Each structure stands twice: as C-alpha cells, then as structure tokens.
C-alpha cells in the first residue's frame, strides 16, 4: 500500500509518501506555497525522482486545515485529479490534528489555537497518544476531522474553553503570541509557530483509518454570509 500525503494549509507546505506504515519520502517547502501550476510541477519532480507517477499510489490524503482555504482546495483538486483515472480513494485529516501529534510530549492533551479572523480564534483539544500515532477528542471519541471538532471563540473567552494543563500550540503564533501569553502560563505554551507536516498526517491516517474523511472538504469555521437583497 503506497500513500501520497500532502498538506498545503500553511505557509510551509509539505508532502510525504508512505509504503505500508513506513515513510519513504518527505519534503517540506520553506516559504509560502507556490501557486498552480508551479506547485504541481514541483510535486511531480519529487515523485518522478523516486520513479513514481500518479498511478503509483493506492490512496491519497489531504490536510484539511483550518488554514489557507485556497491552498487546501487546490490540494484536494490535485489529489482528486490523480485519483480519478484508477478510482483511488482520497481521504482528509484535520491539519490541526497533525500539529497536536507532532507537539505532544508523551500522552497528554494538546490544544491547537489559530486565528479565525473576524475577531475570533479557533481551537481544538486532542488527547494525544504519540506512540500509537493517535489523537482523540476529550472523553475518548474519534475526531470527525470536520468543523464539528472545533470551537470558535472571541479571544477573551479562550481560557474558558481550554482544559486545564493542556499544552498550547499555534500555527499562527506570530499573530497570537500576545493573546496566548496573556491567557496561559508560559510553561504551557509552545512559544513558536508550529506548522502541520505531511508525515504526521500520514501517521494519523494509517493509525486511525476509521476516522479519516472519505469525501473531504476544507475545514471552514465561519458560516456563509448572504448578501442583503437590494
């Protein structure tokens, strides 16, 4: 079983290839994602260097965010295009879950906080089991890897929805550092920007196949706003 995993939800996109449960190829791009078709050409070069093409993969996995909506959407479209000729499945995993898995120090709760704009923050808390490459929701349930897993709150309410003693990590640290430092003790904070990486997405999807999303969509936390009729 060969799996191609891509995350383009952040400013540091990444890809990984797994053969069964072993990562055999990994690349992280340093900087803002290239726009199509440049990023597809870069991906094709990495794949070709290992003697693969689109037909070489049995399944595909996309990071669903929250994050760059356009980046996630482009990633899904590309993977669906690669999967279509042979009817291969495309799955989705929340990029935030990969962040939590990568930052846990032993079995613990990790809360991932991001900038949802519109004067709101998004957050999600996972119970992380690093050795098993698994994350669960508080209470032990499986994550849905959809917007249902997330809370959308004003910054002043963040402390009230995050469990005590949870480690706090953010892909938007540069924008949120002052808020996070004002809300949580310093020893709970991972005081730097942490991006999701495809290797952790792959570990999650292979360890928890029952929770991955079969018809994935980007995680979008704000409801649609209808324009007023004129």
Q: What's the structural blueprint in terms of helices and strands?
A:
Elements: E1 2-7, E2 14-19, E3 22-28, H1 38-49, E4 59-63, H2 69-83, E5 90-93, H3 95-103, E6 108-117, E7 120-129, E8 134-136, E9 151-153, H4 158-161, E10 167-170, H5 173-183, E11 189-193, H6 198-207
Parallel strand pairs: 1-4, 4-5, 6-10, 10-11
Antiparallel strand pairs: 1-2, 2-3, 6-7, 7-8, 7-9
How would you characterize the overall build of this protein?
The chain is α/β, with parallel strands linked by helices. The chain has two domains: 2-94 and 196-207, ATPase, nucleotide binding domain (Nucleotidyltransferase, domain 5, 2-Layer Sandwich); 96-193, Nucleotidyltransferase, domain 5, CATH 3.30.420. The chain has six helices and eleven strands. Strands 6, 7, 8, 9, 10 and 11 form a six-stranded mixed sheet that branches. It has a five-stranded mixed sheet with strand order 3-2-1-4-5, with helices on both faces. α3 (95-103) crosses α6 (198-207). It is globular, with a radius of gyration of 17 Å. Mean pLDDT is 93; it is low at 224-230.
């Amino acid at each position: 079983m060969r799996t191609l995993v891509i995350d383009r939800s952040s400013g540091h996109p990444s890809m990984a290839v797994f053969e069964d449960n072993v990562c055999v190829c990994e690349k992280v791009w340093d900087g803002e994602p290239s726009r199509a078709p440049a990023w597809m050409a870069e991906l094709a070069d990495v794949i070709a260097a290992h003697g693969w093409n689109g037909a070489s993969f049995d399944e595909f996995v996309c990071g669903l965010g929250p994050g760059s909506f356009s980046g996630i959407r482009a990633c899904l479209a590309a993977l669906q295009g690669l999967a279509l000729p042979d009817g291969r499945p495309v799955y989705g995993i929340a990029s935030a879950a990969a962040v939590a898995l990568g930052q846990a120090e032993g079995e613990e709760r990790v809360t991932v906080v991001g900038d949802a704009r519109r004067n709101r923050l998004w957050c999600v808390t996972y119970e992380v089991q690093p050795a098993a490459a698994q994350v669960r929701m508080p209470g032990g349930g499986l994550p849905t890897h959809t917007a249902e897993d997330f809370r959308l709150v004003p910054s002043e309410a963040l402390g009230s929805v995050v469990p005590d003693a949870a480690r706090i990590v953010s892909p938007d640290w540069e924008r949120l550092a002052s808020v996070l430092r004002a809300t949580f003790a310093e020893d709970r904070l991972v005081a730097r920007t942490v991006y999701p990486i495809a290797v952790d997405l792959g570990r999650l999807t292979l360890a928890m196949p029952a929770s991955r999303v079969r018809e994935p969509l980007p995680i979008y936390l704000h409801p649609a706003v209808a324009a007023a009729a004129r």
